[in-house]
Design goal:
The complex is a heterodimer. Chain A is built from 24 helices and 14 strands. By secondary structure, chain A is of the alpha/beta class. Chain B is an alpha+beta fold. The radius of gyration of chain B is 27 Å and the shape is globular. Classes of the chains: A alpha/beta, B alpha+beta. β12 of chain A pairs antiparallel with β34 of chain B.
């Protein structure tokens, strides 16, 4: 029986902050907090006697739920999440969102699950940090205790998946009124592969503030152009001068980080997206353009093909639309809406608890490592404990093995990781990163004893690395490491690379057009085994996306060498240094 | 002189028809009900005429006409919310014979006097003379508005001719006040802040040049000279070139009437009517008002031909354009010795051309009818020649000023597919004012500021036609039957009702302005109704050189029909359209071609529309064509007379079949639209009757029944008729398509 709700519920923002996923970027995360700053940690679940309700499990296509909240709340949450996805799809079709074969897991916990005792456990096992925990163990100050705060809602992700954790106060929170946060939308945009054009991502995020996700529609509130004052003038005087960029300049902001897109470009891109969303045919035109942008630059021809007008006309149409945009709101209603899901809720098996909760706790380690590394051991212990409990019940569960392997990879214990990963790969687990990590480990091992002579790999060595990658390529999302390792293996193998083989890397470059290492390796392979024109094109792009002047100069030097070769031997100069990876 | 541009098939043409007379009759057929209710939107007139950037680039001044109100607005570009309406005028009423007509106020001249003051001439209806003109000045912030010169200031008196044999003084008629219209010559070169204004006289009254000190407002009279015809001044306000009038004035003894109220006040002719005469250009040296033939000054071989008549209007000749800083160098347009008009310079001291030349092989650089078209020459504030506007092609500018050339290059790149015209610039060239227009855009004004990227601020739109209503248009270039490329424009339907869409092929008038470079309201309206619209520059059209125009000399309609076939062949191979839904629409000569094509190729065309197309070309030409209401039957409009003379000069070769003799051969529905004043010459009613006798389907409608104050609605009404007809016969055709056959 559904309990009567006692008070107006709060709308909760669904979800949450996102941790950068790449290993290289985790270390560059938030700067270490000042000594007196709050210590914000991800949820730390401590089983105590007060916790009587077992974990329950439910699933929807593409989703898994592990919950200790009431069944009503769990169903409300699942239904709302499904509805939010439908609403988001109306303004951002799924093909332009992050997609993975790994179901998105959500852990729902009641507020009391993260108890005060968790703080004690964390502080007890945490290493000394200044006058913090160490002093406390010696009977000193409890100042750090007070500073520790557990984040209530969080989304954490890996290169191939994401997982959510939400803490509910069931007497106040209303899961049926969840809304998306900017971070959530940012995640699905930024993690989409191939990368969306930067102007689109920046524009959509600029537009996000105007979006209201209702029960059956998305409402776009009046747009703000430049400033409140300028918007007011546009509303009251359609002749108000307006400054719009040439669309060529907007679409030129395609590569790189959307955060670096100039504000005026983002704003004009937002206007374009809004204008497109307001009319079904224009909406289709935008999606057509965006889909084409996966494989080709946005040119005059492409714009004409999609919007039936040229770039200059498009700018003018946006200009004429501005007074309407700043004045009117409008709704986007999905063509169809699914009915409330019939969710089967059952007690979760230990393996399911181990897999979902253990994977979450694995992700927490990376979050903690980036912000409060002193707490990594305690979180690592917690994750190992949860995963091992799962394995005790289901020792051959391939998904669990895969997660164990990834945990050990993250912990830099390659030997331990290899055992788990081999097991998971043998069982054909759906987890692209598992295959990539195994390939990485095999590659590292092969490099220790290259059997091809002259420091190169022989064909069996190469194939042992490429085999798991070939499986990863078939799973979503595509991972850049798949292509990077492939390119590196080919560069170091005495095998006859055929131009048709290079099509794979061409796809990789299309998927990750701003990845300089992949551009460089692919360019070298094209120069050696394929098309020098393509090689030059990749190097030119490297000159564009290179993050440092030195890197860009490196790309340029190699390009010039290839161009000067006129089909003959390529003189890279510098004692062969130039062909080294940037 | 009536400009040729009024006589071609498109919005301009119908504008001429409608503005002179006109309201549609018998419009709404049942088929109309499904048409766009916003058709008038396409025909709304330009709301912005003049836009000027101040010399320091800080202020923008522009005129806006909306709701029958004319405003001169000054805007601080750094604080755009500060707009000042320096001048507001609503339209005035004026009596014209027995009618009261509405006359909108106009600002024939607006210019920045300096960085902070703007000077303008306003003309509005009212008063005893029927109009009032004033030269005014105002600060950019709207303060210190003053009137510098009024119509009263420039009025003069004319003594009546003495009675024969002498008479008593007391009985002598009093002198007669004669108003004179103003023509602002401009700011004087070499004289600080002084504006020159000419009070225009005629054969009986002298023209006087007034010089106004802008600081004090004091005015003095300078040069005075007599004679009729338009005058070109140099920048010291010296009258230098004069065009003799096309119509010879009545003899002096005919002068005996004071003009009735409401007329311009010019002396009226008596019993002896006006007559046509050849025109020539006269020249006077600076400071000397003694006129002599300009041809007499020229020492070139072959001669430059600074003279013309209706008969040789389409021949080789030259027309003066204006002066720059050097008063001894006259810029002129000419096609002497070449196929197209170019722009050149003549040193008046030597009588020789200078090395200056702006010419294009494919199109006329100068408008062949634009005498004294000073706007062709782009001068900086010191009267130095900065560039030359190209009348044809994409209407670009050949810049002499290197920094403006650089601006042009950058703006062309930023606004591809637009004809970007730099209208003004700050003295330091850091900021320019540009107009971007084209086949898909009526015109937008941008203030562009240097930077990376260039900052483009859209400050005004020429019309309120929303860009979303505008159909995509692309230039066409097809290999022509005679080897030369056939150009034109293809306009795609905004929302086709069927796929592939029906095709409407437009045929232009003889010597009309070439298509493909400007926003065409009529074409856009048809595309907005779901039609694919194609218009080509068929041989016989103007603006693309004498060879292109004169290609029809071998046969009145042969070349045009051949070009139509070429177009069809090309379209069939390159553009999807519904082969069973093709219509042909033409204006003037193009109207005849449209009807004749429907007669010859019934398998191709489902229906045809002719606007003021002659049914019997021979009769049409011999009738000296149609004239607007009120015009003297003895003096046909210039364009009609020139066309008539042009074809008449071809003699026997110029034989085109009359559509009246074989009306039974028309198997497809026809719509014939004609102005009542032209109907007789065009023989529209005769064709209607012939079709009826033959049992053929033909609708005949008169499109000029009464004066309509709302030109946009009237023009839209004409297009509603065309669209309704096309809608009925292209979307709901029910007759089997016949076979192509020869028609005698």
């Amino acid at each position: 029986m559904k309990p009567a709700r006692l008070a107006a519920r709060r709308s909760l923002p669904l979800v949450f902050s996102v941790v950068a996923c790449l290993a290289t970027s985790v270390g560059r995360g938030a700067p270490p907090p000042a000594n007196d700053a709050p210590i914000e940690l991800p949820p730390f679940l401590v089983e105590d006697n007060k916790t009587v309700r077992p974990w329950v499990f439910a699933a929807l296509p593409g989703h898994e739920f592990l919950s200790r909240c009431s069944d009503d709340l769990t169903v409300d949450f699942a239904a709302r999440q499904q509805r939010l996805e439908e609403l988001l799809a109306a303004v951002l079709p799924p093909q332009f969102q992050f997609h993975t074969v790994v179901p998105q897991a959500t852990i729902l916990a009641p507020k009391n699950l993260v108890s005060a005792s968790a703080r004690d456990v964390v502080m007890d096992v945490a290493p000394a940090k200044g006058a913090g925990a160490g002093d406390r163990r010696a009977g000193g100050s409890r100042s750090d205790d007070a500073r520790v705060r557990f984040l209530p809602n969080l989304s954490l992700d890996d290169t191939d998946m994401e997982e959510l954790f939400a803490i509910f106060d069931e007497t106040h929170d209303d899961a049926a009124n969840l809304i998306y946060t900017r971070n959530r939308v940012q995640f699905v945009l930024r993690r989409r592969t191939p990368a969306l054009p930067a102007w689109f991502t920046a524009g959509f995020l600029r537009l996000f503030d105007d979006l209201e996700f209702g029960q059956d529609r998305v409402t776009l509130q009046p747009f703000q152009w430049r400033s409140a004052q300028t918007s007011y003038e546009l509303r009251t005087n359609p002749d108000c001068p307006r400054s719009l960029l040439a669309m060529r300049d907007v679409f030129a902001a395609a590569l790189g980080d959307d955060a670096h897109v100039a504000p005026e470009i983002a704003e004009q891109a937002a206007l374009l997206i809004r204008w497109s969303l307001q009319d079904p045919s224009r909406r289709e035109a935008l999606w057509k353009l965006l889909a084409a942008a996966d494989t080709e630059p946005v040119t005059e021809t492409l714009v004409e093909r999609c919007f039936n007008c040229d770039l200059t006309d498009l700018r003018d149409r946006l200009s004429d639309y501005l007074p309407t945009a700043v004045r009117d709101s409008f709704d986007v209603v999905p063509a169809t809406l699914a009915s409330r899901p019939a969710l089967t809720i059952r007690t979760a098996s230990p393996a399911e608890v181990g897999r979902l909760l253990g994977d979450w706790e694995r992700l927490e380690i990376r979050f903690v490592a980036a912000r409060h590394p002193e707490f990594v051991p305690v979180y690592t212990s917690l994750a190992r404990k949860t995963l091992n409990e799962g394995r005790r019940a289901a020792p051959d569960d391939p998904a669990l093995c895969g997660i164990m392997g990834l945990l050990e990879c993250d912990a830099k214990d390659d030997d331990a990781a290899r055992v788990f990963l081999e097991t998971a790969v043998t069982a054909n687990v759906e987890r692209p990163r598992v295959y990539v990590e195994l390939a990485r480990l095999r590659y590292a091992k092969a490099l220790e004893h290259p059997a091809g002579g002259d420091g190169r790999l022989n064909v069996p060595q190469a194939n042992s690395i490429l085999d798991p990658l070939s499986v990863a390529i078939g799973q979503s999302p595509p991972l850049r490491e798949t292509y990077l390792i492939t390119a590196q293996v080919w560069l170091r193998t005495l095998a006859n690379i055929q131009p048709k083989n290079l099509l794979l890397l061409e796809r990789g470059v299309a998927l990750f057009p701003s990845e300089p290492r992949l551009l460089f390796a692919t360019a070298l392979l094209e120069a050696g085994y394929g098309s020098r024109e393509k090689a030059v094109a990749y190097l030119r792009r490297g000159e564009q996306v290179g993050s440092t002047p030195e890197l860009r100069a490196h790309f340029a030097a190699v390009r010039v060498a290839i161009e000067k070769s006129h089909g003959g031997p390529i003189d890279l100069g510098g004692g062969g240094e130039s062909d080294k990876e940037p | 002189m009536a400009p040729l541009v009024t006589h071609r098939w498109n919005g301009f043409c119908l504008c001429a028809v409608v503005l002179t007379a006109i309201a549609p009759v018998g419009i709404a057929s049942a088929a109309d009900s499904g048409l766009s209710a916003d058709l008038a939107t396409y025909f709304q007139p330009d709301r912005t005429m003049q836009v000027l950037l101040s010399p320091d680039g800080r202020y923008l001044a522009y005129t806006v006409r909306e709701d029958r109100t004319l405003r001169l607005v000054i805007e601080n570009l750094d604080e755009p919310e500060q707009r000042i309406a320096a001048f507001v005028e609503t339209e005035g009423k004026r009596s014209f014979f027995n009618r009261t007509v509405t006359v909108p106020a106009t600002l024939p001249f607006v210019q920045w006097a300096d960085a902070r003051r703007i000077v303008y001439l306003v003309s509005h209806a009212g008063g005893e003379r029927g109009y009032e003109e004033e030269v005014r000045i105002v600060d950019a912030d709207g303060r210190n508005a003053r009137t510098l010169l009024t119509s009263n200031d420039v009025e003069t008196e004319l003594s009546a001719p003495p009675r024969a044999g002498g008479s008593d003084d007391a009985m002598a008629p009093p002198s007669m006040p004669v108003p004179r219209r103003m023509q602002v010559i401009g700011l004087l070169g070499g004289v600080p802040a002084t504006l020159a204004v000419a009070a225009l006289g005629n054969s009986r009254v002298e023209t006087t040049v007034f010089q106004i000190e802008l600081a004090s407002g004091k005015h003095t009279t300078g040069e005075e000279f007599s004679g009729v015809g338009r005058v070109l001044f140099d920048h010291a306000a010296n009258p230098r070139v004069r065009e003799t009038p096309r119509i010879a004035a009545p003899p002096p003894e005919a002068l005996r009437l004071r003009p009735p109220p409401g007329m311009s006040g010019m002396p009226m002719g008596g019993h002896e009517g006006p007559r046509l005469q050849p025109q020539e250009f006269l020249y006077a040296e600076a400071g000397h008002s003694r006129w002599k033939s300009l041809d007499g000054v020229v020492r070139e071989t072959p001669p430059l031909g600074f003279h013309y008549s209706d008969r040789d209007f389409y021949g080789a000749r030259s027309i003066p354009l204006g002066f720059a800083e050097d008063p001894h160098v006259l810029y002129f347009g000419s096609n002497v010795g070449r196929d197209t008009f170019g722009v050149y310079a003549l040193d008046l001291r030597t009588g020789r051309r200078t090395r200056f030349a702006v010419e294009r092989a494919g199109f006329d650089v100068a408008d062949t009818a634009a005498v004294f078209a000073e706007q062709t020459l782009v001068l900086d504030r010191d009267f130095r020649l900065a560039g030359v506007r190209l009348a044809g092609g994409t209407r670009g500018t050949e810049w002499i000023d290197a920094r403006l050339a650089d601006w042009q290059q950058r703006l062309d790149a930023l606004m591809a597919h637009r004809n970007v015209t730099i209208l003004g610039w700050s003295d330091d060239r850091s900021r320019v004012l540009a107009l971007a227009a084209g086949p898909t855009e009526p015109g937008r004004y941008f203030v562009c500021t240097q930077g990376t990227p260039v900052q483009l601020v859209e400050v005004l739109r020429r019309t309120k036609i929303d860009a979303g209503l505008v159909a995509r248009a692309e230039p066409l270039e097809i290999p022509g039957a005679d080897g030369a490329p056939l150009t034109g424009v293809i306009t795609f339907p905004t929302h086709p009702l069927v796929n592939p869409p029906p095709l409407v092929l437009l045929c232009g008038d003889f010597a009309g302005r070439p298509v493909g470079f400007n926003f065409d309201r009529g074409t856009q309206a048809l595309a907005g109704l779901g039609f694919l619209v194609v218009e080509i520059n068929a041989r016989g059209g103007g603006g693309l050189g004498a060879r292109h125009r004169d290609a029809i000399k071998d046969g009145f309609d042969r070349a045009a029909l051949e070009d139509l076939r070429t177009t069809f062949d090309w379209l069939g191979a390159h553009v999807p359209y519904d082969r069973k839904r093709v219509a042909i629409v033409g204006d003037g000569f193009g109207g005849y071609v449209a009807l004749h094509a429907a007669q010859l190729y019934p398998a191709v065309f489902r229906c045809a529309v002719a606007v003021n197309g002659p049914a019997d070309p021979e009769r049409w030409l011999s009738a000296a064509a149609w004239a607007p209401p009120g015009a003297s039957a003895l003096i046909p409009p210039a364009f009609a007379a020139r066309r008539s003379d042009y074809f008449a000069a071809q003699g026997g070769k110029f034989a085109a079949p009359s559509l009246l003799t074989n009306a039974a051969s028309f198997t497809q529905p026809l719509l014939i639209l004609q102005s009542s004043s032209a109907a007789k010459a065009l023989r529209g009613p005769d064709l209607r009757d012939a079709l009826a006798r033959a049992g053929r389907e033909g609708e005949y409608r008169v499109i000029d029944a009464a004066t309509d104050p709302d030109a946009a609605e009237a023009r839209a009404g004409v297009y509603r008729q065309i669209a309704g007809f096309l809608n009925t016969h292209l979307y709901h055709f029910r007759v089997d398509v016949g076979h192509e056959r020869e028609v005698p």
